[in-house]
Amino acid sequence: MKLADVIVDVASACLESTYTYRVNDTSEQGDYPLEVGCVVMVPLGARSVLGFVARVYTADTCACPVKRLRSIQRVCSQPYFTQLQLQCAYYMARYYIAPLSACIRLFMPPGGVGKVVRAPHGEPVAGGAPTPVPVAGGTPVIPGEECVVDGARDGASVLATPPVLSIDTTLPSAPAPAPSRAWIYRGPVMHAQQDTWLEITPEGAAYAPPRNAHRQSALLDALRAGPLLLSELALQFDRATSTVNSLVKKGFITKTVQAHSYALSNVNQPHYTRPFQLNEHQHAAISCITQCMDSACGQAVVVDGVTGSGKTEVYLEAIAHCLQAGKNAIVLVPEISLTPQTVARFRGRFGNMVALLHSRLTTKERFEQWQSIYQHHARVVVGARSALFCPLRDIGLIIIDEEHVETYKQEAAPRYHARDVAWWMAQQTAATLVLGSATPSLETLEAVKRENWHHVKLATRANGAPMPPITVVDMAAEFGGGSRSMFSRTLQQALVHTLQHNHKAVLMLNQRGFARFVLCRDCGYTPECTHCSTKLTFHEVNHRLMCHHCGYSAPLPAVCPVCKSPYLKKFGAGTQRVEAELRSFLSQQIELTYEVPVVRMDADTTSARYAHERLLDEFASFETGAVLLGTQMIAKGLDFKDVTLVGIINADTTLNLPDYRSHERTFNLIEQVAGRAGRDVLPGRVILQTYNPHTLPIQAAAHYDRSAFITGELEKRRQFGYPPFTSCVNILAWGAQKEATRHVLEQFRVVLMDHLASKGCTTWWVSDVLACVLEKVREIYRFHIFIKAPREAAVSAVLYELVRKRKTVAGVNIAIDVDPLSVM
Questions:
Q1: Can you point out the beta strands (E) in 349-448?
Q2: What is the DSSP letter of 37?
């Protein structure tokens, strides 16, 4: 008799425990043969649940009485994960102290794996909206129907077998169903869909649209880099279909309809074209990466390149080498970077072997891409954080672009960081990990000191253009000189000069909506904690300043303690107010002979679909000067040739956040947004407004002196015991009742201190129970405990044992965040 260890898909189950079930004849009469990685329906108590097969073995190796074991009720799917991916899930569950079932779900297909529902008497079975799963024949179809699909590799037709996951929608009303019939698996299904591919013709490549045909120009520019799916263009361009149809009628674009995105004739026929002449720095980076791939011993390469240095071309050359060696590649990019131009560059280089996985696709579109990877048709996967868990085999290269971006850290369980999981995968598969950024994180720069890590630099822009000079404006001096505007005199003059010459400007309002800090407008003084060297946060409720690391509290002073000025300002100006003042200022400038367009990009104006792209298209379409005003979302990913001025209105917001990473975030943000100016032949300029002009992040960024910033910042972190010199953990508790939530976390802290003492962890530092910066969110109260441990300490192993023993308390949730990027 065979047995199977199953990870049940129940959130309250033990973190890493599996349940053992018998595999009898009825179990193997399901839809698929039983293998590791299959989804199965199993009994658990008085109900049936779904689970994931982690191990299949014979009964003679089982220590428990086999007769007492219950049986698997149904095999619901083909294998969704491999043994290596199962090991990755175990690693993540233990390191990030997360439920194993939550880690396994990362490897499931888009749309989930269905659900188990109770079968009513004589009524339709309710199971929720259908979602996709792979089915026999490799084609999603409607249960009970036949579907002939064109697009096999040899050109022949394929008969898609109807999936046997379909279920009866009614049950007999009498007699009452047996207990084994009380639960039914509701398998998701999906209609077959076709893909429309677009390619530019020679006539279209040579065509120059009229100056006012901005959408045609943008679409043709995207297609010049390579073929694209119509659905991909529609994600970025409003009314893309009508524009495409117009270009097709003119003969500038050809349209090809295929049953699947992997059915084109050019599949597995990459185009090893090199559209740009690579410089010596790019050649050196490519050489380092290819040598690491050829050695096949699990190494990492940090590509440290300034904005516009041609890192993408380095990635493309490395991928080409990987494919020629018979291996496959994963490319992770921040969500904002998934533009048609980015996609087209990968499609144009590697044809139809590229699959995309990101949140802007619909569930059906994501499933189509996932299935092409699962069936080994796609060999290059480009996507956001979750693309790391796609079913790609034989991985030889993992690339993480803009690796410093915080979106690579997941905020819900499992709270993993894609960079660290990718490094684990690279070591297990002997692949090469490439981390690229203009501002690598301090953890990454510290990691290059390890064995098997390499650091290569791209010190200049690929086109030879210089980095724009940065002018720092002391806003305290401006205020002292009688200026009350949020725009300094220097920025006003530069703005008028730029618009007079019909050039464009980008103004960034560096804000976080909840960040409230106090600043003296005369001398620039900001209250700091006397124990933690972090800025104090202003709390409106009790009118006090608080430290969210150690709990230190102080009343808000009536005057500045340094200069006795009464002008203490609580910061937080919104983009709407800035836009109103900007329009008022521009309307009063007699030097400007036209009404200057102002495009605002923030959370309000970009909430609708296509809004982000529509606003950028609008900004690009103006033939006169224009101003793009936005928040941090405009700091990267913008490439406009006529932008010659970048203004950072308030650099102090991130600088004064109560977080030990605030200085690093400020420096990175300034470096990134400064790179938006002067990217072509027109020279650029950056105006940086601050009340703290002499602080290290501001001065280092103004001179592009990253080494000076890193030296000073690392020394500060070493002194106060922060990463990369320590391991940190944030323990978060939340609940609807304020005092009950605090009490539960205080009790947990008592048990935690006893546990650490029993383990000999005497050098660990544990904070008191503190209210989070956002103490109340949607009627939920939040408290946390911050832990700092020696870098070499096995933090996860020590806390994992404690968390497994903890008894849950109704109404209060506790989460463990290992290696947090923020403690707010």
A1: 354-357, 380-383, 395-401, 432-437
A2: T
Q: How far is CA 321 from the centre of its chain?
A: 26
How far apart are alpha carbons 621 and 696 in whole angstroms? 39
Give residue 637's pLDDT. 65
Those residues with Cβ within 8 angstroms of residue 282's Cβ, 6 or more apart along the chain or in another chain: 309, 310, 313, 314, 317, 458, 462
What's the N-to-C CA distance of the chain in angstroms?
53
Amino acid identity, position 453: W
Asked if the peptide bond before residue 658 counts as cis, ω within 30 degrees of 0, the response is no
| Entry pTM | 0.78
DSSP state of 439: S
Contact 208, 332 (CB under 8 A): no
- As a 3-state breakdown, the chain gives helix, strand, coil percent values, each rounded to 5, of 35, 25, 45
- Enclosing H/E stretch for 690: strand 685-690
User: Phi/psi of residue 541, each to 5°?
Assistant: -60, -55
Closest CA to 656 of 574, 712, 572: 572
For residue 271 the two structure tokens come to 């185009």
Q: Which helix (H) or strand (E) holds 322?
A: helix 311-324
Pick from 381-395, 658-672, 699-713, 785-799: least confident: 658-672
Q: With the CA atoms of 146, 147, 148 and 150 taken in that order, what torsion angle do they form, in degrees rounded to the nearest 10?
A: -160
The reported pLDDT for the residue numbered 276 is 58
Tell how strand 328-332 and strand 395-401 pair up.
parallel
Classify residue 59 by its DSSP letter: G
Contact between residue 612 and residue 644 where contact means Cβ atoms under 8 Å apart: no
